[in-house]
Protein backbone atom coordinates (compact mmCIF):
# COMPACT_ATOMS: atom_id res chain seq x y z
CA UNK A 1 0.00 0.00 0.00
CA UNK A 2 1.18 3.51 -0.84
CA UNK A 3 0.48 6.57 1.27
CA UNK A 4 0.50 10.20 0.12
CA UNK A 5 0.46 13.18 2.49
CA UNK A 6 -1.16 16.40 1.29
CA UNK A 7 -1.43 19.46 3.58
CA UNK A 8 -4.79 21.14 3.03
CA UNK A 9 -6.90 23.97 4.39
CA UNK A 10 -6.20 27.02 6.57
CA UNK A 11 -4.13 25.08 9.13
CA UNK A 12 -2.23 22.84 6.71
CA UNK A 13 -4.01 19.74 7.96
CA UNK A 14 -2.50 16.54 6.62
CA UNK A 15 -4.84 14.71 4.29
CA UNK A 16 -3.70 11.17 3.52
CA UNK A 17 -4.39 9.11 0.43
CA UNK A 18 -4.03 5.38 1.03
CA UNK A 19 -3.59 3.70 -2.31
CA UNK A 20 -4.04 0.09 -3.41
CA UNK A 21 -3.83 -0.25 -7.17
CA UNK A 22 -6.21 2.37 -8.55
CA UNK A 23 -8.32 2.58 -5.38
CA UNK A 24 -7.82 5.06 -2.56
CA UNK A 25 -9.13 5.91 0.88
CA UNK A 26 -9.10 9.62 1.68
CA UNK A 27 -8.38 10.50 5.31
CA UNK A 28 -9.18 13.98 6.68
CA UNK A 29 -9.87 16.18 3.63
CA UNK A 30 -9.45 19.42 5.57
CA UNK A 31 -9.96 21.93 2.75
CA UNK A 32 -8.73 22.94 -0.70
CA UNK A 33 -11.00 20.43 -2.39
CA UNK A 34 -9.73 21.39 -5.85
CA UNK A 35 -6.13 20.61 -4.89
CA UNK A 36 -7.11 17.20 -3.53
CA UNK A 37 -9.25 16.39 -6.56
CA UNK A 38 -6.40 17.36 -8.90
CA UNK A 39 -4.10 14.87 -7.18
CA UNK A 40 -6.71 12.12 -7.36
CA UNK A 41 -7.32 12.80 -11.05
CA UNK A 42 -3.62 13.11 -11.89
CA UNK A 43 -2.97 9.69 -10.38
CA UNK A 44 -6.13 8.25 -12.01
CA UNK A 45 -7.39 7.01 -8.64
CA UNK A 46 -10.91 5.96 -7.72
CA UNK A 47 -11.82 6.99 -4.16
CA UNK A 48 -13.58 4.35 -2.06
CA UNK A 49 -14.47 6.37 1.07
CA UNK A 50 -13.58 9.29 3.31
CA UNK A 51 -12.31 8.46 6.80
CA UNK A 52 -12.16 11.08 9.55
CA UNK A 53 -9.79 10.82 12.50
CA UNK A 54 -12.09 13.35 14.19
CA UNK A 55 -14.51 16.07 13.19
CA UNK A 56 -12.77 19.35 13.99
CA UNK A 57 -13.32 21.94 11.27
CA UNK A 58 -9.78 21.80 9.89
CA UNK A 59 -10.20 18.09 9.13
CA UNK A 60 -13.60 18.27 7.41
CA UNK A 61 -13.49 21.37 5.20
CA UNK A 62 -13.56 19.51 1.87
CA UNK A 63 -15.76 16.58 2.93
CA UNK A 64 -18.91 17.52 1.04
CA UNK A 65 -17.19 18.61 -2.18
CA UNK A 66 -15.13 15.42 -2.35
CA UNK A 67 -17.93 13.03 -1.47
CA UNK A 68 -20.27 14.65 -3.98
CA UNK A 69 -17.61 14.52 -6.69
CA UNK A 70 -17.02 10.78 -6.22
CA UNK A 71 -20.32 9.67 -4.65
CA UNK A 72 -18.57 8.05 -1.68
CA UNK A 73 -19.41 7.52 1.99
CA UNK A 74 -18.00 9.34 5.00
CA UNK A 75 -16.97 7.53 8.20
CA UNK A 76 -16.49 9.13 11.64
CA UNK A 77 -16.59 7.93 15.26
CA UNK A 78 -20.13 7.75 16.59
CA UNK A 79 -19.32 10.18 19.46
CA UNK A 80 -18.86 12.94 16.90
CA UNK A 81 -21.75 12.06 14.65
CA UNK A 82 -23.31 15.53 15.08
CA UNK A 83 -20.12 17.58 14.79
CA UNK A 84 -20.04 17.86 11.02
CA UNK A 85 -23.30 19.84 11.03
CA UNK A 86 -22.52 21.95 14.12
CA UNK A 87 -19.98 24.80 13.87
CA UNK A 88 -19.81 25.10 17.66
CA UNK A 89 -18.90 21.46 18.19
CA UNK A 90 -16.44 21.25 15.28
CA UNK A 91 -14.80 24.47 16.46
CA UNK A 92 -15.16 26.59 13.34
CA UNK A 93 -17.30 29.17 15.13
CA UNK A 94 -14.35 29.94 17.45
CA UNK A 95 -11.60 30.53 14.88
CA UNK A 96 -11.46 33.61 12.61
CA UNK A 97 -9.73 31.70 9.80
CA UNK A 98 -12.86 29.52 9.49
CA UNK A 99 -15.00 32.09 7.67
CA UNK A 100 -17.72 31.24 6.99
CA UNK A 101 -18.08 28.55 9.69
CA UNK A 102 -17.45 25.04 8.40
CA UNK A 103 -20.28 22.53 8.24
CA UNK A 104 -20.99 19.38 6.28
CA UNK A 105 -23.80 16.89 5.85
CA UNK A 106 -23.98 14.02 8.35
CA UNK A 107 -21.56 11.12 8.03
CA UNK A 108 -22.87 7.99 6.39
CA UNK A 109 -21.37 5.48 8.83
CA UNK A 110 -20.16 5.60 12.42
CA UNK A 111 -17.02 3.80 13.54
CA UNK A 112 -16.25 1.92 16.73
CA UNK A 113 -13.15 0.00 17.74
CA UNK A 114 -12.28 -3.11 15.79
CA UNK A 115 -11.37 -4.34 12.33
CA UNK A 116 -12.96 -2.65 9.34
CA UNK A 117 -12.93 -3.54 5.66
CA UNK A 118 -13.78 -1.00 2.99
CA UNK A 119 -13.27 -1.96 -0.64
CA UNK A 120 -9.66 -3.29 -0.92
CA UNK A 121 -8.64 -1.94 2.48
CA UNK A 122 -8.60 -3.70 5.84
CA UNK A 123 -7.54 -1.78 8.92
CA UNK A 124 -8.02 -1.53 12.66
CA UNK A 125 -9.83 1.34 14.35
CA UNK A 126 -8.61 2.33 17.82
CA UNK A 127 -10.52 4.87 19.86
CA UNK A 128 -7.94 7.43 21.04
CA UNK A 129 -9.89 10.23 22.76
CA UNK A 130 -8.41 13.19 24.58
CA UNK A 131 -7.94 15.74 21.82
CA UNK A 132 -11.63 15.23 21.14
CA UNK A 133 -14.12 12.63 22.41
CA UNK A 134 -14.33 10.75 19.12
CA UNK A 135 -10.70 10.88 18.01
CA UNK A 136 -9.65 7.61 16.40
CA UNK A 137 -6.47 6.07 15.03
CA UNK A 138 -6.41 3.99 11.86
CA UNK A 139 -3.90 1.12 11.93
CA UNK A 140 -2.71 -0.62 8.79
CA UNK A 141 -0.87 -3.48 10.45
CA UNK A 142 0.81 -5.06 7.43
CA UNK A 143 2.26 -1.72 6.35
CA UNK A 144 3.15 -0.56 9.88
CA UNK A 145 1.20 2.68 9.46
CA UNK A 146 -0.75 4.51 12.16
CA UNK A 147 -2.82 7.53 11.13
CA UNK A 148 -3.32 9.27 14.45
CA UNK A 149 -5.03 12.59 13.69
CA UNK A 150 -4.25 15.22 16.32
CA UNK A 151 -3.54 12.76 19.13
CA UNK A 152 0.24 12.64 18.70
CA UNK A 153 2.72 14.75 16.73
CA UNK A 154 6.43 14.62 16.05
CA UNK A 155 7.76 16.01 19.32
CA UNK A 156 4.31 16.99 20.57
CA UNK A 157 0.82 15.95 21.57
CA UNK A 158 -2.65 17.17 20.70
CA UNK A 159 -4.21 20.17 22.38
CA UNK A 160 -6.88 19.50 24.98
CA UNK A 161 -8.35 22.98 25.53
CA UNK A 162 -11.16 22.63 23.00
CA UNK A 163 -14.64 21.33 23.94
CA UNK A 164 -14.46 17.66 24.92
CA UNK A 165 -10.68 17.65 25.31
CA UNK A 166 -9.00 16.12 28.35
CA UNK A 167 -5.27 15.83 29.07
CA UNK A 168 -5.41 12.69 31.22
CA UNK A 169 -7.54 10.93 28.62
CA UNK A 170 -5.17 12.01 25.85
CA UNK A 171 -2.11 10.67 27.66
CA UNK A 172 -3.87 7.37 28.37
CA UNK A 173 -4.75 7.05 24.68
CA UNK A 174 -1.18 7.70 23.58
CA UNK A 175 0.36 5.34 26.12
CA UNK A 176 -2.13 2.49 25.75
CA UNK A 177 -3.15 2.66 22.10
CA UNK A 178 -0.15 4.11 20.21
CA UNK A 179 3.07 3.58 22.16
CA UNK A 180 2.19 -0.11 22.54
CA UNK A 181 2.63 -0.54 18.78
CA UNK A 182 5.91 -1.90 17.40
CA UNK A 183 8.55 0.83 17.31
CA UNK A 184 8.85 0.65 13.53
CA UNK A 185 5.29 1.88 12.99
CA UNK A 186 5.16 5.11 11.00
CA UNK A 187 3.04 7.68 12.85
CA UNK A 188 1.11 9.93 10.47
CA UNK A 189 -0.18 12.96 12.38
CA UNK A 190 -2.81 15.52 11.50
CA UNK A 191 -0.19 18.28 11.21
CA UNK A 192 3.53 18.33 10.56
CA UNK A 193 5.95 15.57 9.64
CA UNK A 194 5.58 11.83 10.02
CA UNK A 195 7.55 10.11 12.75
CA UNK A 196 7.82 6.65 14.30
CA UNK A 197 6.72 5.11 17.57
CA UNK A 198 10.35 4.59 18.59
CA UNK A 199 11.29 8.19 17.81
CA UNK A 200 8.48 9.54 19.97
CA UNK A 201 9.29 7.19 22.84
CA UNK A 202 12.88 8.38 22.79
CA UNK A 203 12.60 12.11 22.11
CA UNK A 204 9.08 13.44 22.63
CA UNK A 205 9.34 15.75 25.69
CA UNK A 206 5.70 15.15 26.61
CA UNK A 207 6.23 11.39 26.91
CA UNK A 208 9.39 11.22 29.01
Could you write a compact summary of the structure shown?
The protein is an alpha/beta fold and 208 residues long. Helix content is 20%, strand content 32%.
Describe this structure in words.
This is MBL fold metallo-hydrolase. Keywords: Hydrolase, Metal-binding, Zinc. By secondary structure, this protein is of the alpha/beta class. The protein has a single domain (2-203), classed as Ribonuclease Z/Hydroxyacylglutathione hydrolase-like (Metallo-beta-lactamase, Chain A, 4-Layer Sandwich), CATH 3.60.15.10. 20% of the residues lie in helices and 32% in strands. The protein has 5 helices and 14 strands. The strands form 3 sheets. Strands 1-2-3-4-5-6 form a 6-stranded mixed sheet, covered by helices on one side. It is globular. The N and C termini lie far apart (32 Å). The model has no long low-confidence stretch (mean pLDDT 96).
**Can you summarize the main beta sheet?**
6 strands, mixed
The total count of helices amounts to 5
Strand order of the largest sheet: 1-2-3-4-5-6
C-alpha-based Rg, rounded: 16 Å
CATH-defined superfamily: Ribonuclease Z/Hydroxyacylglutathione hydrolase-like
CATH architecture: 4-Layer Sandwich
CATH topology: Metallo-beta-lactamase, Chain A
Shape: globular
**String of helices and strands:** EEEHEHHEEEEEEEEHEEH
Mean pLDDT reading:
96
